[in-house]
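fyi for ur records
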Amino acid sequence: MSEIDKRNRLNKEPFSYQTTKKGTVVIYYEGKQIKIVKEKEAERLLAKIQQVEGQIKEVQLLLAKITGNFKRGNEKLAKPQKGMKVKKDLLR
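which gave:
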């Protein structure tokens, strides 16, 4: 595990998840929803989480892997909508 999480970010438990009545898994990063996993993929994820139950860092790793590289600095700013005031500094 030490080779995977070299900066020990998973120790802070940034990921959390919630299961809906339909079996959908909603994954959060620092309280913000980042991914919704449905159907077979959700079943597989929940089965893997049950296998490593009690090992917090392993659960964090599973959630990190399923979200992929969502946070790599390539996120785009949302385009301003009509009537919204935008700070010019943000658009540079």
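The two ends are 39 Å apart (CA to CA). thats all i got for now
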